[in-house]
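Q: Sequence in, structure out?
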Amino acid sequence: MIYFEDFAEGDIREFGDITVTHDMIIEYATKYDPQPMHLDEEAGKASILGGLAASGIHTASLMMRMLCDDLLLHAASLGSPGVDELRWEVPVRPGDRLHARRTVKAVRASKSNPRMGIVTLFVEVFNEQGRVMWMEAASMFARKETAA
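A: Exactly. Output:
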């Protein structure tokens, strides 16, 4: 189990491996973001994206899956008060193989709850060519000495 005390500012960890397929993009878009450029190759080509591309929220969801598998499902995670920044840099396309990197930007004990601490994570998602998105968010974790 990973607790608040296990984080140190500057820690970096690479993780994840998800290959995005055409069917994944269409399925997600059909259910959650049915904009034409996420549903149809020709509509994607006619858009600023230049071809069929995953929804940005789909990419963020894939990042969250990788973060859960790498960290959150093995940690005394207490949730998050929110995302400070989220940016998409290039479209994610069918065939892209995604992985991620998390960097601990800040670690601080909670002022209002001595049983937890707050860790600010900078999470980047990459395909084979480079970075496709990044996010900075605070996450709350239980402290070891108060976990029971």
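Residues 4-146 form a domain with the Thiol Ester Dehydrase; Chain A fold (CATH 3.10.129.10).
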